[in-house]
Model the fold of this input.
Amino acid sequence: GAEEALRESGIPFVILRCADIVGPRDTTYRWWQYQVWSEHFDIINTGFGVPNMLKYMRFSLTYGGDVGQAVVSALGKGVTNRAYNVAMDKPFTLPHFLL
Done:
């Protein structure tokens, strides 16, 4: 893959592996429907359906601001030839996160 090609090339690199990125500039709306529902449940007054295939699926998210901090940190420390995972501390299931 790409990481192996970089390692073999001898070119200095830093790889930041991100999960799905969410934050103020996320224009995909993949997370915002849950955010709106959770903030306005008292008005909506209905449950939010979680598809069966997602009830137990573990996943991670990355906050967009954390990506920026990771880039600044890696550049500031002069890190090279390393790969980092940038995501929230623990994976979770959608029902766990919503409740």
Observations:
- Residues 57 and 93 are 6 Å apart (CA to CA).
